[in-house]
Known about the structure:
The chain folds into 3 domains: 3-53; 64-84 and 94-168, no CATH class; 178-356, Rossmann fold (3-Layer(aba) Sandwich), CATH 3.40.50.300. 44% of the residues lie in helices and 16% in strands. The protein is built from 12 helices and 11 strands. The strands form 2 sheets. The chain has an 8-stranded mixed β-sheet, with helices on both faces. Strands 1-3-2 form a 3-stranded antiparallel β-sheet. β5, α8 (228-237) and β6 (241-242) form a beta-alpha-beta unit. α6 crosses α12 (358-373). The two termini are 26 Å apart. Bound molecules: guanosine-5'-triphosphate (GTP) and magnesium ion. Guanosine-5'-triphosphate binds at residues 189, 191-197, 227, 262-263, 290, 318-319, 321-322, 344-347.
Amino acid sequence: MNVVKVVANTPQEALEQIHAxxxxxxxxxxxxxxPVSGVKKIWTKPQVEIMATAPEPQANHEDxxxxxxxxxxxxxxxxxNRPVAAPQSPRPRxxxxxxxxxxxLQTARTAGTEGDGGLLPAAKxxxxxxxxxxxxxxxxxxxxxFLGFTKPRSLPEEFALVRETxxxxxxxxxxxxxxxxxxxxxxVGTPGTGKTTSLCKWMTxxxxxxxxxxxxxxxxxxxxxxxxxxxxxxxxxxxxxxxIWDSAELIPEDTLRFVDLPGVQVGDREGxxxxxxxxxxxxxxxxxLVLNAAYDLGLLLAHARFFxxxxxxGIILTHLDEETRWSKCWNLVLATQLPVTYLAGGQxxxxxxxxxxxxxxxDRLVAAGRVEEE
Length: 374
Ligand SMILES: Nc1nc2c(ncn2[C@@H]2O[C@H](COP(=O)(O)OP(=O)(O)OP(=O)(O)O)[C@@H](O)[C@H]2O)c(=O)[nH]1
Ligand SMILES: [Mg+2]
């Protein structure tokens, strides 16, 4: 990766230099204010350092589908030709595709049935890749009821059907929870999941890449909001940051509004009550539950259950630099019936922060299974 570092007096100047060197699509990796030491502080203004790189060339949609089909074909080939494991072998790891899938697929073919428990073989395989059994049964049923269902002729066709069914369900959830216009973006969750970091990443992209006007509210709740780094980051980007929400204040309609709140521990009902009262004051808010994807699924579901009394509109998954079990993402969507809105990874700002795409997440789930197999 060719990383370019630029130091300038303002973020705008730095960005102009980055664009001149790498083009308008440059990806900003990090932004920081350079400290000024000693007596120089008196006459020197702090400078801004931006690190950026050229964007990765994007594969087009058809290429991606071709690659996915190729992967599924390889997967099918491996499953059907896989040697049966020795009887003393330990329980298969959740990400492994056990040999009984091969038997099941064979049975499904020779007997002309759809396999174990009436599940579509593709649903059975994604269960082996980590999808909870109840979700696998659900998706199998849904895929059968999907518009214009005709029995798929091959496993790749069946995977394409499951992929489409899941993506369609995800879009339904997104539409169900979408807020009209330009809602206030609010971040809630347990302490330390990456709420403020996600806000900084999102805000930085909007300011530097899209030139949007942004305002930030760093609010206290039952606990004080100690995120000083948010205020420093806003200062670097020249984004106004407030400590009190004033509902009477008139803000231009195209300004993006972000609200940062301190975390609430699971079980802290008083903290959650105070938070719920604060959320009522924010009109038409898009409320993102920020979850650390490196936690176990059981813990994530417990967190989601605790916050489910709030009007959550979507989930942001952080720490994806530490976690690659993509089945967790699908289990969360299906269990909470909330869309995952953004995926974030790493401590750098803006670093990795992208809208979540259901098709890409399905492809990653399948691809991750393949990597485990190799
Ligand atoms: N590895 C990794 N670290 C992260 C990620 N997101 C945040 N962090 C780190 O996790 C720590 C907590 O991040 P914050 O953004 O302050 O978390 P928060 O949810 O706002 O925390 P509270 O406001 O105290 O509830 C910081 O050290 C971040 O740098 C991520 O995606 N990956
Ligand atoms: Mg915070």
